[in-house]
């Protein structure tokens, strides 16, 4: 390699470099300072939420006002209907049995005070007969003493009253059961009793003399009379009233002759709910709870929808405790065509409205993406430009929108210009300056650096037998090895001089291990060059021998130049010494594939380095005094020295 005179004070620069110095004039590159992070939103979302939001709000307001009014009115009427029907049935039930319970409650004091004697059965029967005649809801009134003997009055199906002693007349048996009572027991309802005439509910009170229970007064009431009263509130052929008692037995059903679903019940009453033959009652527990009936639910009324084949029914029911040993369920169901049609109409309108909202939002999203896609692509490609990944930047397509088309043309031209500039400006250097703040980091200053200078041995002779293209190809392959090794250790390639390279560590990144990083990089170069030479030898190409000089010392680093010819470079005695060291390799590395010579200033900073050999003290051209030189093993393993990389900080 030939040099042009002394290198002292010479600025090795990129001829087409762009200025980064503080006084670079009109062409200086201003690197923005780090700003506080701002909340950014993609244009696609802005357009989608904006346009779609306005359409959605408009449709939602209209939909809300109309549907809300319809739903409110419809479900208010349905709630009122459910409450009215169910409470009417419950009132009839409670009114019927309350009169029965009141009858025994009113008679009890006469027995307890001795006005009616248990021993004078004739007089007692007369009193019971009067009580039974005045209360049509009672079928049997019977008094039972502690020995089990009884007497009372029975109302026959034809309405005739039959007094009896010890034995109830035919048809009156199995109308009641005596519960376990104490002297303090209140009126107590026993289980439902079934005989040939029908089903009976019975209530008993204790008869007390002197604080001791002496007998029981019981009244039994036929459910046939209750059915007549409840059927009076039925809403026609489209409604069915029922009562479920004894756990799950249907004891009253208003459509025993003809069911709404067609046909007749398969059994007589009472019958288990699932065996009666009414498919609506059979599916009672499978009903779907209807929403919108909160008012009815607060009154204890359950409203559900039951599907039977292609028909659906609205079921309203309530649990009524107190008139047997188990709670009763009274209710009514009717065809849900009218109500279901209204509910479905309202639901359908709501679904259509929601569908319109969804479609509007989807259209807005589509339009937003359509309009914002070029800008989104611009943002993606701009991030690649910001990271200097220029080879990965895709050209922006042309657009029919004039403004977007102009942006695309300008961006594509900018990228081509950056690619051309990046051919001459080291990408790693530009990235560091951008990261550290170009104006501050590029300002010329003195710093302690480690400089590496490489040169190919006898390249002039090697290139004599090559064409220009072959020479360029060999140099490019060689320089790619050098650059990769330097950048792998965080160094900065300053320039290529003929077949040589100048690189340095310690700026713009301030790092205390710059000497160790430079030595690691030199050994990376040696290993990579050895591998390349093996490949070259197999294909008959010339192999390359390399000299590397490494020196550590103070140097001026930063922008050096004038007007529009600024270079970020290093100058000073340290650079000259490094070049002299690689030149000294001609004498100390004869025949070696790679020779690495380092100054004592560099070796002194290699903690744990054992693969070095003292070469002696040498007087270098252009430098007063002798310099202690060390010869490093180019192929030493990385673990032979402690080259750990500490945290890198910005240069002061």
From TrEMBL:
Keyword Zinc found: no
Keywords: Membrane, Transmembrane, Transmembrane helix
Keyword Membrane attributed: yes
Recorded GO CC terms: membrane
Transmembrane annotation, as ranges: 43-67, 346-367
Matches recorded under SMART domains: CYCc, HAMP
Residues annotated as domain Guanylate cyclase: 450-582
Gene3D superfamilies with a match to the protein in the record: 6.10.340.10, Nucleotide cyclase
InterPro entries: A/G_cyclase, Adenylyl/Guanylyl_Cyclase_3/4, HAMP_dom, Nucleotide_cyclase
Region (Disordered): 1-25
Superkingdom per UniProt: Bacteria
Domain HAMP: 369-423
PROSITE patterns on file: GUANYLATE_CYCLASE_2, HAMP
PANTHER family in UniProt: ADENYLATE CYCLASE, TERMINAL-DIFFERENTIATION SPECIFIC, ADENYLATE CYCLASE, TERMINAL-DIFFERENTIATION SPECIFIC-RELATED
Protein name: Adenylate cyclase
């Amino acid at each position: 390699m030939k040099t042009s005179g002394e290198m002292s004070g010479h600025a090795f620069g990129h001829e087409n470099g762009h200025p980064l110095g503080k006084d670079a004039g009109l062409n200086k590159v201003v690197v923005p300072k780090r700003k506080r992070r701002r909340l950014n939103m993609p244009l696609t979302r802005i357009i989608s939420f904006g346009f779609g939001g306005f359409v959605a709000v408009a449709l939602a307001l209209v939909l809300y006002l109309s549907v809300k009014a319809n739903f409110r009115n419809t479900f208010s009427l349905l709630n009122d209907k459910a409450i009215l029907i169910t409470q009417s049935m419950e009132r009839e039930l409670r009114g019927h049995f309350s009169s029965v319970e009141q009858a025994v409650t009113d008679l009890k004091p006469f027995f307890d005070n001795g006005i009616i004697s248990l021993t004078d059965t004739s007089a007692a029967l007369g009193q019971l007969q009067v009580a039974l005649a005045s209360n049509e809801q009672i079928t049997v009134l019977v008094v039972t003493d502690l020995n089990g003997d009884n007497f009372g009055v029975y109302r026959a199906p034809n309405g005739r009253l039959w007094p009896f002693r010890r034995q109830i007349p035919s048809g009156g048996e199995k109308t009641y059961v005596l519960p376990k009572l104490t002297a303090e027991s209140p009126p107590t309802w026993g289980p439902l009793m079934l005989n040939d005439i029908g089903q009976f509910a019975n209530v008993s009170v204790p008869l007390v003399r002197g604080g001791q229970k002496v007998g029981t007064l019981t009244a039994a009431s036929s459910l046939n009379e209750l059915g007549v009263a409840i059927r009076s509130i039925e809403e026609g052929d489209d409604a069915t009233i029922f009562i479920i008692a004894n756990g799950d037995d249907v004891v009253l059903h208003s459509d025993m002759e003809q069911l709404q679903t067609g046909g007749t019940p398969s059994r007589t009453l009472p019958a288990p709910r699932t065996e009666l033959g009414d498919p609506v009652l059979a599916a009672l527990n499978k009903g779907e709870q209807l929403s919108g009936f909160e008012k009815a639910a607060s009154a204890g009324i359950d409203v559900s929808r039951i599907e039977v084949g292609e028909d659906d029914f609205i079921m309203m029911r309530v649990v009524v405790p107190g008139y047997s040993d188990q709670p009763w369920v009274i209710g009514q169901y009717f065809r849900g065509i009218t109500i279901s049609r209204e509910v479905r109409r309202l639901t359908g309108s709501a679904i259509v409205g929601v569908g319109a909202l969804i479609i509007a939002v989807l259209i807005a999203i589509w339009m937003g993406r359509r309009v914002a896609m070029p800008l989104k692509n611009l943002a993606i490609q701009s991030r690649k430009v910001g990271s200097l990944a220029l080879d990965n930047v895709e050209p922006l397509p042309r657009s029919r929108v004039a403004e977007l088309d102009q942006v695309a043309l300008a961006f594509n031209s900018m990228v081509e210009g950056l690619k051309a500039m990046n051919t001459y400006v080291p990408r790693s250097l530009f990235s560091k300056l951008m990261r550290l703040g170009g104006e501050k980091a590029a300002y010329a200053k003195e710093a302690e650096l480690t400089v590496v200078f490489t040169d190919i041995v006898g390249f002039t002779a090697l290139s004599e037998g090559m064409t220009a293209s072959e020479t360029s190809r060999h140099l490019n392959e060689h320089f790619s090895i050098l650059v990769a090794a330097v950048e792998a250790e965080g160094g900065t390639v300053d320039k290529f001089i003929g077949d040589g390279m100048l690189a340095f560590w310690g700026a713009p990144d301030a790092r205390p291990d710059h000497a160790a990083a430079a030595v690691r990089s030199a050994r990376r170069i040696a290993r990579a060059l050895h591998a390349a030479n093996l490949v070259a030898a197999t294909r008959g190409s010339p192999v390359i021998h390399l000299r590397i000089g490494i020196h550590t010392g103070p140097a001026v680093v930063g922008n050096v130049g004038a007007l529009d010819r600024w270079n970020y470079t290093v100058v000073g005695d340290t650079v000259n010494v490094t070049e002299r060291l690689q030149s000294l390799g001609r004498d100390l590395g004869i025949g070696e594939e790679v020779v690495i010579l380092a100054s004592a200033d560099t070796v002194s900073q290699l903690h744990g380095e054992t693969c070095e050999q003292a070469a002696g003290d040498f007087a270098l051209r252009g430098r007063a005094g002798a310099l202690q030189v060390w010869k490093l093993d180019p192929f030493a393993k990385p673990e032979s020295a402690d080259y750990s990389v500490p945290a890198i900080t910005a240069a002061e």
